[in-house]
Amino acid sequence: DGGITQSPKYLFRKEGQNVTLSCEQNLNHDAMYWYRQDPGQGLRLIYYSQIVNDFQKGDIAEGYSVSREKKESFPLTVTSAQKNPTAFYLCASSIGTGNTIYFGEGSWLTVV
Amino acid sequence: AQSVTQLDSQVPVFEEAPVELRCNYSSSVSVYLFWYVQYPNQGLQLLLKYLSGSTLVESINGFEAEFNKSQTSFHLRKPSVHISDTAEYFCAVSESRDDKIIFGKGTRLHILP
Q1: Do B101 and A96 touch (CB under 8 A)?
Q2: Among candidates B95, B98, B111, B109, which has minimal Cα distance to B38?
Q3: Does residue A61 surpass a pLDDT of 90?
Q4: pLDDT in tens, B51-72
Q5: Is the pLDDT reported for residue A1 higher than 70?
Q6: Which 8-state DSSP code applies to residue A15?
Q7: Is A45 close to B100, i.e. CB distance below 8 A?
Q8: Which terminus in chain B has less CB density within 10 A, N or C?
Q9: In this complex, do B99 and A105 lie within 8 Å of one another by their Cβ atoms?
Q10: Which residues are CB-neighbours of A51 under 8 A, at least 6 positions away?
Q11: Cα separation of A109 and B53, whole Å?
Q12: DSSP tag of A101
């Protein structure tokens, strides 16, 4: 089935450790996104990528890093510099500008 | 850079009553506008979108939204809500020049029996 796969669904990490969240899509979409969803904050854009080997910072990129080496993959690394990393992270993809974006099921990250 | 404001974090409304969820945006260029819905314990899905043409767009489940360029708004309306409309609704904006999509903080629609 076509879609967006995020893994892991739940992740626990100790403070100070980097953690990488995986996002894979088989929709042949050019654009991919990472959002963070917190209660009362809506979805806030962390990074987005319009094409392979290119990505742009969103509104809350500090403490995060991404790569886009393959069209189907857009992993997100939450670094120790992120002050409040505990959150629900959503990956999404789209054919391109003006088109519907499709979301993965999300990853819950808890940092203790 | 574009931004989106959803002024109401929660909207309670009686079943079969009309509802309006407000969305305002800011951008210096032409935009595409979206409403996404997140039902309890489910992922986000597209409800409707405006790209160009008619300023009034409709969804298959009775919602509609009107693009008002002068007021920079894209309010979502339904003439008669049902208990199954209980969800969180997110307005989103994309500028026509790139793929960046910004979401509002969401509005929780509570349907009262």
Answers
A1: no
A2: B109
A3: yes
A4: 988 889 999 899 999 999 999 9
A5: no
A6: T
A7: yes
A8: C
A9: no
A10: A30, A68
A11: 42
A12: P
Q: Report whether B93 contacts B100 (CB < 8 A).
A: no
Judging contacts by C-beta atoms under 8 Å, the chain A residues touching residue B104 are 42
Tell me if B44 and A103 make a contact (CB, 8 A cut-off).
yes
Report the alpha-carbon distance of residue A20 to residue A39 in Å, rounded. 22
| Binding-face residues of A in 1-60 toward B, CB within 8 A | 30-31, 33, 35, 40-45, 48, 50, 56, 58-59
Confidence of residue A87 (pLDDT cuts 50, 70, 90): very high
> Which of B18, B62, B102, B59 lies closest to A35, judged by CA?
B102
- DSSP lists the bridge partners of residue A47 as A34, A57
- Helical spans, DSSP H, in A1-112: none
| A42: Cα separation from own chain's centroid | 15
Look at residue A91 and tell me whether its pLDDT is greater than 70.
yes
Give the Cα separation of B75 and B55 in Å (integer): 11
